[in-house]
Amino acid sequence: MKQNNHHHNQPLVRMVKRTDLTRGKSILIRVLALLAAFVTGGLLIALLGKNPVAVYGQMVTGALMTPAALRETIRIAIPLLITSLGVALAFKMKFWNIGAEGQICLGAIAATYFALFYADKIPQPFLFLVMFLAGAVFGGLWGLIPAYFKAKFNTNETLFTLMMNYVAVYIIQYLREGPWINPANTGFPQIARFDTAARLPKVFGVHIGWIVALVLVGVMYFYLNRTKQGYEISVVGESQPTAKYAGMNVGRIIMRTMFLSGALCGIAGMLQVTGADHTLVETVAGGVGFTAITVAWLGNLNPVAMLVTTFLFSILDKGSNSIQTVFAISNAAAEVLTGIILFFMLGCEFFIRYRLVWRRKEHRDHE
Amino acid sequence: MENAIELRHVTKTFGPVIANQDVSLTLRWGEILALLGENGSGKTTLMNILSGIYYPDEGEILVRGESCSIRSPKDAFDLGIGMIHQHFKLVDVLTCMENIVLGLPGKQRLSRKKLSQEIREISARYGLEVDPEKKVYDMSVSEKQTVEILKVLYRGANILILDEPTAVLTPQEIDRLFAILRRMKEDGKAVIIITHKLNEVMAISDRVTVLRRGHAVGTVETAEMDVPTLTEMIVGRSVSLEIHRSPVKDPEDRLRVVNLTCLGSEGHKVLDDVSFTLRSGEILGVAGVAGSGQRELCEAIAGLYDVAGGAILYKNHVDGVEVSENLVGKTPREIIKKGISMAFVPEDRLGMGLVGGLDMVENMMLKNYGEHPGPLVDRKAPAAQAESLIEKLDIVTPGIHTPVRMLSGGNVQKVLLGREIDSAPAILISAYPVRGLDINSTYTIYNLLNEQKEKGVAVLFIGEDLDVLLELSDRILVLCGGRVSGVVDARMATKEQLGLMMVHVAGEGADHEAE
Questions:
Q1: Is B409 helix (H, G, I), strand (E, B) or coil?
Q2: Which of A331-340, A357-366, B193-202, B408-417 has the least mean pLDDT?
Q3: Residues A234, B302: C-beta atoms closer than 8 Å
Q4: If both were cysteines, with which of A207, A275, B83, B383 could B161 make a disulfide (CB 3.0 to 4.6 Å apart)?
């Protein structure tokens, strides 16, 4: 028998599922993870020949400590938060919408159309309303297409939504080089900058998109937890056969929810072009549609928690921009640093769910 | 001779929950040991400790007389312990042979011919019947189980643990499995079988170890036992095993199924010309080998399965007015509103009637959330309903906001049936309501069904255990390959008669509607 292997030999370490974690303890674990991330990231910074404390300090100052920096951080957070709400809606239904990028683009395109051609024809408040609705409807329709095929033919929504991202980006490229080209610009083809009438006003120095985003957090929370439609989404997400058994029209729920999911992303696109960019560029989504997936899961698909995770992501994003300029750290190195911090933050979720049990000395004496 | 396995004072906890406490158990070579206990008594945890999935907090495990530490399923394999789980762990797209060698250490190249030869040898020795080249997705449940058994035998296991192996098998398949187990026993192997069915324990085991609430309450020789004594050991007090059956009062036709035909995904007939009548105040049992069309029948009545031909006629008196309607072509919601309630429980129990991740309140409102006016959901009424169900049916749960997935099987079943009954149905369809439940819960469920019958509800009861069908039902409809092979009076019929009808449809035009 393999006596030597088995006898007296408890596993060195084993995982035990936690059932009794207190709130304080889970916060402690997250704080420890953040510290570990800073230490590891600090090693990287030291290797680059910089002072880790100064660099971290700059990350925080550069993201939060000056009014200008804080405004920029919030500007980054606006589209990310709204898009996260959008994808979370679909994820709650277990519909893997990774097409938020495309839905943002379509919302941006629809809003841009009115900004370019109707800015002088419609009074300003109505112009914004029209742009808002156009952004929501077109983003929603872009989300509805894969949902329709999913509901009717059970197509794979992951591939479908992903592919539609590329279509959306190329539509912008076509518009930029063709119908919407700015003739006044002689260099690289561009779409004209928006008339001032089509630029969102600012409140506390940031375009009013942040108010829209906060309102949407509340609306989403209410929608998911209090309405019949929110309830239907959670049942369909858990089990489609059960939803059918309960008399729900599953196809219709899928299409309706994806329309709303796309519409939220479309609103994010609309706010981005009229609030921040003031023109339409191919990078209007700029990866937000993918980052939103991480934000949504880290926030456990809970709108209020997503508000917190979005803000943390934006601080990281802005902070890493800031250290690039101040310390001349390359973009790639800054991204490695962000990656390290994310790795620890995501990894610590494991320790929140499981406890490690190390081999005990006394136990060996028993045997 | 030394024992195959000896557990000494094993304790395992999950957070505050004690799954096993101070459990000692011995397994001898050449015997079949039955492990008995109610749900949640710690049987599966104990066996998972032996197969290396969990590690005990306290206690010692001796295999072949040597103290050892089983840290992973691989350690268990190395010690010759093979576990056949309740849920098969096979790769669907691979063949039987490929599944068997999957994950085995050894050469990169294997000779298919040699392997196939070896598998056939093992099969012949123990009477296992399976084609090594057959893909798993083409296999029946019983064949998949055979592959699982072959897998552990091929890996050289001589201590086998089977977790509820008979739960999904037909009576004939169970006989075949038992023959295989007896051959293993003759071959000197040691076998542990976990089951709920006491008649099976009496038929196959040499000794029985009973667990109750995580403690081992005793080990006895099967030959010296009878079913009532065993039941008492399991439950901790004596339980009447008789199923009560009240006479049928004023039966009226409630549902007439006429020439119902349904097609499967490949265009074959899963229900073929099915006709029968379901009356108020009676329990109509449905017997049949698994997959004879029971599921499709239930789903067709509830509007969840497309009907290719025939009619489902619903009759009732509403406020003194006679209603008669064809349900074919109606949506599930319209059918629910007529008071046809389906408590359908497929193999995985939560399956279709309940949403595992949601709490009791949200499950209460599953079918009637739409009735509350306005766009918002009302949680107050279902919360009150949940509270009253907990009280009325003794549902054990930490609270109404615990996801139902966390409840034990019996409690899940009570939640489901309780909700359906609360909706005051005219017809109650209940499929496999006691599958995997322990004795106490099983009898609670039978009582619930009887209560409904006495209230005048027409109950359609899809069952597996022929003894229970004969004791509980008033009439029994027997399905065979999607066709009705007859309707018998449950008070007169015998098990043998049902068994024959389950595998053979009487000649055309035979008395389908024998009363």
A1: helix
A2: A357-366
A3: no
A4: B83
> Which of A232, A242, A301, A355 would you mutate first to test chain B, the one with the most B CBs within 10 A?
A242
Question: Sheet harboring B159-163: ordered strands across?
Answer: B81-84, B159-163, B190-194, B32-36, B207-212, B215-221
**Residue B29's pLDDT band (cuts 50, 70, 90):** very high
A112-146 confidence digits (pLDDT tens): 999 999 988 889 889 999 999 999 999 999 999 99
- The confidence score (pLDDT) of residue A10 equals 63
Residues forming beta bridges with residue B62, ordered by sequence position: B6, B67
Check if the beta carbon of residue A100 is closer than 8 Å to that of residue A235: no
Whether this prediction's pTM lies above 0.80 is answered by no
Encode A58-70 in three state secondary structure. HHHHHHHHCHHHH
Nearest CB among A6, A226, A229 relative to B69 is that of: A6
**In this structure, is residue A18 part of a structural domain?**
no
Question: Could you tell me if A20 lies within 8 Å of chain B, comparing CB atoms?
Answer: yes
The Cα angle at residue B168 between residues B164 and B173, in degrees rounded to 5: 100
- pLDDT attached to residue A361: 52
SS (H, E, C) B188-212: CCEEEEECCCHHHHHHHCCEEEEEE
Amino acid occupying residue B18: I
All residues at 6 or more sequence positions from B417 whose CB lies less than 8 Å from its CB, including other chains: B343, B430, B433, B445, B448, B449
Distance CA B164, CA B511 (A): 38
Query: Which residue range(s) make up the domain with A224?
Result: 77-308
Is residue A361, in this structure, part of any structural domain at all? Answer: no
* Calpha distance A256→A251 (Å, rounded): 9
Query: Is A116 in contact with A181 (CB distance < 8 Å)?
Result: no
B332/A247 CB distance under 8 A? yes
Span B110-148, pLDDT tens digits: 778 888 888 888 888 888 888 888 888 888 778 888 898
Residue type, B256: R
φ, ψ (nearest 5 deg) of residue B430: -130, 115
Facing residue for B71 by CB, picked from A11, A235, A242 = A11
For chain A, what is the domain count?
1
In this prediction, the answer to ipTM > 0.90 reads: no
Sort out which chain A residues have CB atoms less than 8 A from B69's CB and list them. 6-11
Chain-chain contact of B358 with A3 (C-beta, under 8 angstroms): no
Chain B residue closest in CA terms to A362: B58
Q: pLDDT tens digit string along A234-279?
A: 999 998 988 988 889 999 999 999 999 999 999 999 999 999 999 9
Average pLDDT, chain A: 89
Q: For residue B507, which amino acid is it?
A: G
d(CA B51, CA A29): 32
Domains of chain B (ranges plus CATH)?
Answer: 5-235 (3.40.50.300), 251-339+425-515 (3.40.50.300), 353-424 (no CATH)
DSSP state, residue A26: H
Convert B439-467 to b/e letters by CB count within 10 Å (16 or more is b).
bbbbbbbbebbbebbeebbbbbbbbbbbe
Contact A242 B302 (CB under 8 A): no
Do residue A238 and residue B353 have CB atoms under 8 angstroms apart? no
Q: Closest residue of A to B303, CA-based?
A: A245
Distance CA B478, CA B498 (A): 7
Residue A104 forms part of a structural domain:
yes
| pLDDT at residue B509 is higher than 90 | no
**Contact (Cβ atoms closer than 8 angstroms) between residue B465 and residue B170:** no
Burial pattern B113-139, b for ≥16 Cβ within 10 A else e, equals eebbebbeeebeebebebbbeeebeeb
Residues 224-253 of A with CB under 8 A from B: 226-231, 234-235, 238-239, 241-242, 244-248
Residue A201 in any domain: the answer is yes
Do residue A242 and residue B71 have CB atoms under 8 angstroms apart? Answer: no
